[in-house]
Amino acid sequence: MIYYKEITETVREPFIILDKDLRVVTANLSFYTKFKVIKKDTEGKRIYDLGNSQWDAPELRLLLENILPTHRVLNNYAVTHVFPTLGRKTILLNARQVDSKQLILLAMEDVTERWKLKFDSDELTENLIKQRDQLQGLNDAKDEFISLASHQLRTPATAVKQYVGMLQMGYAGQLTKDQLDMLGVAYRNNERQLEIIEDLLRVAKVDAGKVYLDKTFCDVTIQIEKAIKGQAILFKNREQTVVFNKPKAKMIASIDPKLMLMVLENVLDNAGKYSKAGKHITIDIRQDKSHTIVTIQDHGVGIRKKDLQKLFKKFSRIDNPLSASAKGTGLGLYWAKKILDLHQGTINVTSKANVGSNFEISTPTNAGA
Ligand code: ADP
Prior knowledge:
single chain, 5-stranded antiparallel beta sheet, alpha+beta, 5-stranded mixed beta sheet, binds adenosine-5'-diphosphate
């Protein structure tokens, strides 16, 4: 008996040993403390008679009298019971018959708080999942709205472009200089409107997962040259120069040429837009073992460190000395990053305010075409 007593005393959870008549042979200190009973009123008493019969619970009777005799061992049997001294508690019982069924070891772990915490955190998780789904739903609805609205706007805006163009060409008679000037303003603003609509539609499409790459092995230097040529007038107007350090060798990579051209145009356009007149932009291309890397470096207004993380987010226009005059939607880099993600490539930037920025576009060279 001493032996059992020593064991029970070393166990931190409440623990009792019962004889075959369910009388307490011994209990450990933790049992006395936890259930607020004393040794004199415990040892030799039937478990059901302990502490104002607080253990006289139907679940415990079922466990000790029916389940345990057949199974001999019971693990983690939870009993929720209102104890007169402790209130409502959930106790995890672990019981074992020993010594040819002469004794029963019964450990009681109060899991009320732990289970409550778990229940609360499960409930919290469930609520968070619900909220996330609701937000996702709202986000999808917003994307759909933007896409629908942009589609609806495109047709009338295109019609305005055609009719303004016809007026400018004299289809409705000769116009005065003032009239032509005004139409010129209308035309440019309408073009801007169409650009915004196109940006919105492009982003809506990529967000909806409806952009599919049409990859082929092609020379990326050609795409760079096309991008430069396409914007030559813009650079000329700003007296900016673009220097492309074209390598002798071809830079063949597996890309979607149209989409990659648009990415390059976007980054190059930004380099010009966010640089003052007269500045130059340098483009380099190289290949390492696995990737084709294009860098576009400008000497423009640069980006403050704290703004760098916003750069590739949707609708993020970062305030800088040229952002008021340089038109934009804050969608270009977001879209470009999505296109690079589809290529399993990356777009990264290093920049310093008032010094300039360096954009690095990297794509796997041999990704399955
Ligand atoms: P936007 O249509 O406004 O140009 P982008 O997504 O292309 O949208 O760029 C987001 C923001 O990042 C811009 O508003 C600008 O503040 C900043 N940015 C992009 N490229 C550069 C650059 N080369 N130099 C400085 N700022 C840049």
